[in-house]
Amino acid sequence: MSFTTRIKAFAAATLAAATLFSMAACGTSDSSDAGASDGSSKSAGTQGFDTSSIKKDDELAAMLPDSIKSDGVLKVGTDTSYAPAEFLAEDGKTPVGFDVDLTKALAAEFGLKAENVTATFDSIIPSVGSKYDVGISSFTVTKERLQAVDFVTYFKAGSTYVVKKGNPNKIDSADLCGKKVAVQTGTTQEEEVNKANDACKASGKSAIDIQSSKLQTDVTTAVASGKADIFYADTPVAGYAIKQTGDTLEALGEDVGVTPEAIAVKKGDAKTAEAMQKAVQKLMDDGTYKKILDTWGVSSGAVDKAEINPSVES
Questions:
Q1: Considering just the CA atoms, what is the radius of gyration of the chain in Å?
Q2: Distance in angstroms (rounded) separating the CA atoms of residues 161 and 240
Q3: Which residues, at least 6 apart from 122, have a Cβ–Cβ distance to it below 8 Å?
Q4: Ramachandran category for residue 32: left, alpha or beta (phi over 0 → left; psi -120 to 50 → alpha)
Q5: What is the pLDDT of residues 156-197, one digit of tens each?
Q6: Does the residue 15 lie in any domain?
Q7: Which domain, by its residues, includes 250?
Q8: 237 or 4: which leads in pLDDT
Q9: 151 shares its domain with 280
Q10: CA end-to-end span of the chain
C-alpha cells in the first residue's frame, strides 16, 4: 500500500533505531501526558487528518451515557507502538495514526475532547469501562474477546509474515517449528503462533521460539536485527514497518485471513455501543472516514458498515 509523503517524512528510524524505540517505550505507561488534543495531529512533521471542521451532532451526543460525557472528554486506551494505526510522533508523546484521527472525529461528533492514553496492548481491554471509556487500538474481533467486551467494527485487516529481505534463513511460514518468531503480546497473531507451536510439539518437532514483546516496534527490531527469524502482525502494520525500514524487510507469502477490527466497549454497555456504532456509520456515510484512511494510505481496509458484535469464526 502507498503512504503519503508526509508520513514517509516520519524518520525511517521509527521502526529500526534502538534509540527511538527507547523513547517509544517510555510512553507505555498510562499517563495524561500522552493525551492528544483536538485538531489535526501535528508533531515534528507528522500530520494526520484535520478533524477541526467536524461539528457536534446533538442527536448522537444525547445517545452517549452521562458517565462518559459528563467530564467533556472521550478517554481512549491506545497502544501507540502500532504504526500506522496508532504510534507516537517525533516528540515521543503525541499519539498519531488513523485510529487516533478516528478517535478525534468520534469525539468531535459527541462534542467531546479526545484523549488517547498510551497503554500496552494487552492491558487495554481489561481496563475498558474503568480507566478508559473505550479502547481503539486495532483490536481484531475474536470470540474470546467478545466474552470480555462489546465491539463496534470500523476496519478490516489480514495478517502478514515479515522476514529479512531475501529471506536469508529460508523461512517457510507453513513450518515454523524450531524457528524464532516475534509477535506482539496479546495479539491474535500471538494466539495463532502459540497454536502452531502446540502442533509442532504434538508432532514431535522442535518447539517454536516465540519472542513476545509488549511493543510492535520491538517485534520489528527483533527481525531487522537478526534476533528473530520472522514476525507476524496485522497487514497494515507489517506494510508500514517494511516501508519504514527501507530495504531491510519484506513480506513472506500471501496475507492471511482478513477479519474485522473494532472499538472495544464495556461489556453490556448497550448505550455506548449503539452511540459508537451510529457515530462511526455517520463518518462512513459523510465521507470523513474514507478521507482519514486515505490520509494514512490504508483505504484498502475500509468497510462500509459499522456493526455491533459481528459473528466471527474464532
A1: 19
A2: 13
A3: 185, 186, 214
A4: alpha
A5: 999 999 999 999 999 999 999 999 999 999 999 999 999 999
A6: no
A7: 160-257
A8: 237
A9: yes
A10: 27
